[in-house]
Amino acid sequence: MSYSVLLTIHLFAAIMFVGTVFFEVLILENIRKHVPRETMRTLEIAIGTRARALMPWVLLVLYSAGIGMAWHHRAALAHPFDSSFGLLLTVKIALTLSVFGHFITAMTLRRKGKLRTIHFQRIHLSVFCHMVGIVLLAKAMFYLHW
User: Fold this and answer.
1) Domain range list for the chain
2) Rounded distance, CA 66 to CA 23, Å?
3) What is the pLDDT of residues 96-129, one digit of tens each?
4) Of the candidates 15, 63, 25, the residue with the CA atom closest to the CA atom of residue 47
5) CA separation for the pair 69, 57 (Å, rounded)
6) Where are the transmembrane segments (predicted)?
7) Rounded-to-integer distance, Cα 79 and Cα 53, Å
8) Following CA atoms 142, 131, 51, 25 in sequence, which dihedral angle do they give, to the nearest 10 degrees?
9) In terms of Cα–Cα distance, which of 132, 122, 3 is closest to 70?
10) CA-CA distances (angstroms) from residue 39 to 23, 44, 45, 52, 107?
11) What is the DSSP string of 46-97?
12) Phi, psi at 11, each rounded to 5°
């Protein structure tokens, strides 16, 4: 598959994933104090059900396209300290692997019935911070050089 096709697929999947995380952290968490508890619970269940159905597929597409793109840059990844691009891409990949670890942790806790609100909030906040870093690195890779 051509790099431009992989990039386009990757960007659309990233928009879906990052948009969902931004919505949950910046909007959903902030309306909690303005919405009755039972209504908020119903809303969280509905959004959670949809996210659990959709996000595994979004992540599959996102990571698959990312792996294809990384393969294209395998020379830079083989020697990440030889270029700013290689180093920034390596850091970006490390952050994406951490996000995947967060996803696995959340799914494992959920299946065991141990995913509590505090876990959910902390995982989402951490993923949000990771996503901000990933987005900044995605741009910096092409504009920062040393």
Assistant:
1) 1-143
2) 23
3) 999 999 989 998 998 999 988 888 889 999 999 9
4) 25
5) 18
6) 6-28, 49-71, 83-104, 125-144
7) 38
8) -140
9) 3
10) 18, 9, 10, 20, 24
11) HHHHHHHHHHHHHHHHHHHHHHHHHHHTHHHHHSGGG-HHHHHHHHHHHHHH
12) -65, -45
What is d(CA 61, CA 74) in angstroms, rounded to the nearest whole number? 20
The residue assigned the tokens 């741009």 is 139
Question: 80: Cβ–Cβ under 8 A, 6 or more apart, which residues?
Answer: 86, 87, 89, 90
Structure tokens at 146: 């040393």
Question: Residue with structure tokens 């879906």?
Answer: 16
Element spanning 106, H or E: helix 84-111
Q: How far apart are CA 124 and CA 109, in angstroms?
A: 14
pLDDT tens per residue, range 10-64? 999 999 999 999 998 999 888 988 999 999 989 988 998 998 899 999 999 999 9
Q: What is the pTM of this model?
A: 0.87
Provide the residue count of the chain.
146
Q: What is the DSSP string of 2-23?
A: -HHHHHHHHHHHHHHHHHHHHI
